[in-house]
Amino acid sequence: MSERDPEKQPAAAEPSQQPDYEPTPSSNSTPSSSSNSTAAADPEAQREAARQSNPNGFSRINAGVSVEQAEADFAELQRELSGLSRASRTRSHRVTDIEKGADATFESPESDGSVEIFDLETTLRGDLDAEREAGIKPKHIGVYWDGLTVKGMGGTTNFVKTFPDAFRDFVDYWTPLMKLLGRDNKGTEVTILDNFKGIVNPGEMVLVLGKPGSGCTTFLKSIANQRWGYTSVTGDVLYGPFTAKEFEQYRGEAVYNQEDDIHHATLTVEQTLRFALDTKISNKLPAGTTKNKFKENVITMFLKMFNIEHTRKTVVGDALVRGVSGGERKRVSIAEMMITNACILSWDQANRGLDSSTALDFAKSLRIQTNLYKTSTFVSLYQASENIYKQFDKVLVIDAGKQVYFGPTSEARAYFEGLGFLPRPRQTTPDYVTGCTDEFERAYSDGYSPQNAPHSAETLTEAFEKSRFAKQMNAEMVEYKTKLEHDQEIARHDDFRLAVRESKRGGAKHSVYSVGFHLQVWALMKRQFVLKLQDKLSLSLSWARTIVIAIVLGTLYFNLQHTSASAFSKGGLLFISLLFNAFEAFSELGSTMTGRPIVNKHKAYTFHRPSALWIAQIFVDTAFSSVRILVFAIIVYFMSNLTRTPGAFFIFYLMILVGNIAMTLYFRAIACMSPDFDYAIKFAVVTVTLFILTSGYLIQYQSQQVWLRWIFWINALGLAFASLMANEFGGNNLTCSSESLVPTGPLYGDIEHQVCTLAGSTPGTVEVNGGSYITQAFSYAPEDLWRNFGIIMGIIVFFLIGNVVLGEFVKYGMGGNQAKVFAKPDSERKALNEALANKRLERQKSKEDVESALKIESSSILTWEDLKYDVPVPGGTRRLLNGIYGYCKPGELTALMGASGAGKTTLLDVLASRKNIGVIAGDVLVDGAKPGKEFQRSTSYAEQLDMHDPTQTVREALRFSADLRQPFETPREEKYAYVEEIMALLEMESIADCIIGTPEAGLTVEQRKRVTIGVELAAKPQLLLFLDEPTSGLDSQSAFNIVRFLKKLAAAGQAIVCTIHQPNAALFENFDRLLLLQRGGRCVYFGDIGSDACILRDYLARHGAVAGPSDNIAEFMLEAIGAGSTPRVGNRDWADIWDESPELANAKDRISQFKDSRREAASHIDQSLQREYASPLTHQLKVVIRRTYISFWRSPNYLFTRLFNHVVIALLTGLTYLRLDDSRSSLQYKVFVMFQVTVLPALLMPQVEMMFVLKRAIFFREQLSKMYSSFTFTLAMVLAEMPYSIVCSVVFFLPLYFVPGFQSEASRAGYQYFMVLITELFAVTLGQCLAAISPSAFVASQFDPFIVITFALFCGVTIPAPQMPGFWRAWLYQLDPFTRLIGGTVTTALADLAVNCQPGELSAFTAPGNQTCGEYMEPFFAANGAGYILDNATQACEYCAYKVGNQFYEPLGFKFDNRWRDLGIFLAFVGSNLIILFSAGRFLNFNKR
């Protein structure tokens, strides 16, 4: 078996066999492929013979390890989507364990028989043959652009919005209107790309290079015909013969892969790719393969290609859901895009998060796929290595939106050197040409200077336009346009049209999508079903909630009888059953908004129409909710003894189900049309409040304001409630119970002279007709039941159409990163920024670093010996680190390297004491002693995830760190001066006052990375600085600056350990020492690197891995140990070699020497004087509370949405019960007004929980650095909410109390306000309390409905305390905080209130023949009977049930005398929330690492 260098190898296939598909001859595009063969025969010929003898697949030709077998495994795959094949861009051999050599193959359980290096080129050639035989046409399209100019909005200095701005924006309808009409004057139009020209033929690859912000992303989007979000795109862009406008019908043939990976977190890698295939699989498949087999083969090929077979069944994951690693997730994105089978591909920073060997594999796969399928491929890369650069045909260099070079990759370096730019030693070509566009980086050769050489974007463009490359490009462009008329080209473009048309199936012939609408819906239904099933947490929580609430309702309303006493309770039960299930759909609001980016991506890839998703989703939702609601209905219906007939039960179930479906669609429609979550919440609160108020339970239809009443007819909740009432009461008679009979007592026995006070009753009978009851009390007619159902179905159809239309036409969240936002300037900041700018000018002028005052006094040495780390996994433990030795001393920069998943971050976490799960064995010592409690504070750890408070400016973030982490004794001026120093060193002058924001809207990835490093440096770590991938996601220039800066810090005396991905030779030179890990967490090398890496090269060469003089050793060593997709060099495991090496023995010896020499120094440290935190508690509180207050002030949406919701609910409730009179029904309405106060927790808790969890995530990072304690954080959060709670309680109380016309005397109104204020504080502290005991906002939000419903049910309003089952009344009624709220507010509102019944509220009966009404009723009133008689002197008595408000509430168990006691108990509940909150903050830790 011959092993040859894959870089140097010619194409595996015979050129003569593939005349049309020969790789474009180019000096630098050697199609990479590795061929290992035991047979001398031509593999193509062998395969052809195999194909003829077995049309359904390939047979084994040779036994043993063979290429043919590997090819056979894949070529079956008969490339359906050319996409897949493109996918296959990687010649990724895959052995079960990458670190084991080829000989490990035979024991591998995963490999059937034998596995060989996966040769992509041979695989794809097989696909092409199979496709040709099946009559599948090739799709070849070149791209031509001339005068491409793109403009967008920019140039404005936006200042950060604060709480008062939210009010101004709310009343400003003019600006959004102008924006809608395209007349928005805010901001100036800026040119992002200026007059670009060029041409790419099918089969060419273009590398796009430029600094961040130069316009690379805009170019890639524009070339892929994605023009959304720009104000104008002008110039000619031709895709083959099609203009950009014409090419829109082939939208799926030009695709753009964005930098961020967006996927459904709970789908596995296999399911993600399978869904893409479901929507893209061609109508025409190669012979002898079925769709399912084809999909299986494609997925397997991709996973092998990208070396991620082991992730097949792993969920993709995201920031919150644990899944595959970042590098693996990037590969899933790449594979997904390859499945699109497009012919024009734009890749934006596709190597982010990939280690250097995988990045090179990716570039090679692209090369092969581009050669074979003749795609036009555009790629922008950060930190591209020389080997990656060689894969490309052309390079486009952009500087500030100008095209400064477009031509062959092989000549770019010579061109820029000819202009007078000096290359740095060992600098890769991509770094060099990008550096020429950076005024701080470029250097001039002897004899050149800015005076006589290009020195700006304009002069570089001018130089290029005069060069021979521009002339060559213009000639090519003319030739391309002429060629479009040739018959051969026309035939090729007809093939393209035909190929696109034939690949479509299921009625998609004239659509941009590959499959018909019904097939999209079917694929989405399968995906949504899997998504729901795999989101086990949500599923189990919603079932648990449903069953618990059903049991609570069933027991609370247990065995209701058909009597007048239970009529009111039945109404409450039906209303709550309907409402609970309708609002289970509220989570749709959030999930629809957060799912937007995925929908946008899939639409761009032409996987499916957004409307197909909404239709599929409602089917899947209904399937899940119908089962859940059925269980709910069975429990509630039969426990509470509602009408026991099959028809009545079925209608009860049906009405609740359609209510749920209608509200699901309604919330989804709101989410589709709202630009952001706050708008959605505001809109939902207004409309949902109206729905609840007009549904007929809280205030009956006939009592509603005429101008609100019409909402009932478009209100699915109201219509469903009316039908539920008609279903329950329509065919039943109610028996009047004794408390409803008047008069009642020992002297009254004749029903002829008594009346039932229930609405709908007739004198002289104990029976009340149920139909009459709902007709008189609610204005519901029993015969309207099915009419209402029909209207609800109409509403459902309307909302579904709304979803579909809005989903298709409303485009939110498809634009790019927003403009920067700054803090408003003040004199101090202006002076500081001027000083920074001057320092920068000095630095530029001298071209040398101005001496900085960096002096780090650190002498301690960190050592680690035999370090092992085991984590619990299902079924046992897994070892992530295995026997690692090393040390780090001041003044040295140590690189920690290895393939993705080798355990680099894990090792850093262990060394920095950041792990709190798993078992660590071995010693980590500082100066030979165990680290003290100051250790975490005196080390800085810049983590990979850039977690910052999004409302801080960069300067505030650094100052916050310096304030709390530098010694308390250091004067504040000195700390702040050091912060300015750090900002200058990290070149953050221009963003010093910029708000950090979120990755979607705020600083760019690269700027955020600098802030992360700055925050850690501002702490002035005395001992060590750890950095986890400080250069990933950065361009080469920024990466070089950061590493150069780290080198400078090391020179000043800092000890630094840093993990690093993809270092080029120039970067790698800066490191003093290397710790190299392989998968399984084993060490492969630890020691000095040496000048020009001579020590490392020597070590590798001694064991058989000889690096060439021009090889980048950082890439070479990873390939040598088998970290990429090539097998390792040599037949021994490199970790075993290291374990037996003299270098390891030497390292152990050095460690013991360090321990001995430093033990003396360590013994002088008094452990008892060490402090865990640098600052005392008072200082922590001052700094943290100030930041939290500013953070809230700068979160106008959070505060304004909250205030808006309070005002709207109070106002709508007040207007619904406008000017209540002193009638009997008004008593009940006044209770309901007070009951509305209980909605505050439902409103506030979700918002407060979200805010608390977001801030807690930042606290977790800061707590690990020992900045401040959990007590400080919790107190700051509680205090920050207080001012807004008081404001909200005032604006809620005023309309709610005074619009309905409650008493205005101070003793009553003041008490009622106090109760509202305490409810507000109770809701906020309860929300924070739930967030503190929950691992995430999602889990916390799952408690909300249960708690709110329980509190509302047991406070004595929906079912009076005397009617509650004794079990609940004995404890839960007493423990319910709202019992105190209702007890206090209702008695205060109704005590001593005179009642005057309206004529319709009077109950009529006749007195016996010889008595007047007064005489007949006298014994009844003497026995404390309630109410009064209108006219005592007649025999036709008209009776009013209440004379004074007290008679209404006293039977319910409330007393006016207890109101201050109730207020005190309610306050105590707020206190108990705070106790739980502070205890949870202190003792619960959800920051598991």
Q: Got a strand count?
A: 28
| Uncertain spans | 1-116
Strand content: 5-15%
In angstroms, what separates the terminal alpha carbons? 45 Å
Number of helices: 54
Radius of gyration, whole Å: 37 Å
The average pLDDT score comes to: 85
Largest sheet: 6 strands, mixed
Helix content: 40-55%
Multimeric status of the protein: single chain
Biggest sheet strand line-up: 7-8-9-4-10-11
Structural class: alpha/beta
What gross morphology would you assign?
Answer: globular
Concise account of the structure shown:
The chain is an alpha/beta fold and 1489 residues long.
Task: Explain what you see.
- This protein has 1489 residues and is an alpha/beta fold.
- Helices cover 50% and strands 11% of the residues.
- It is built from 54 helices and 28 strands.
- A six-stranded mixed β-sheet has the order 7-8-9-4-10-11, with helices on both faces. The chain has a six-stranded mixed β-sheet with strand order 21-22-23-19-24-25, sandwiched between helices.
- A hairpin with a 2-residue loop joins strand 10 (394-399) and strand 11.
- Helix 20 (536-556) packs parallel to helix 49, helix 28 (716-729) runs antiparallel to helix 29 and helix 34 (954-965) packs across helix 35 (972-985).
- It is globular.
- It starts with 42 loop residues before the first helix and ends in a 6-residue tail after the last helix.
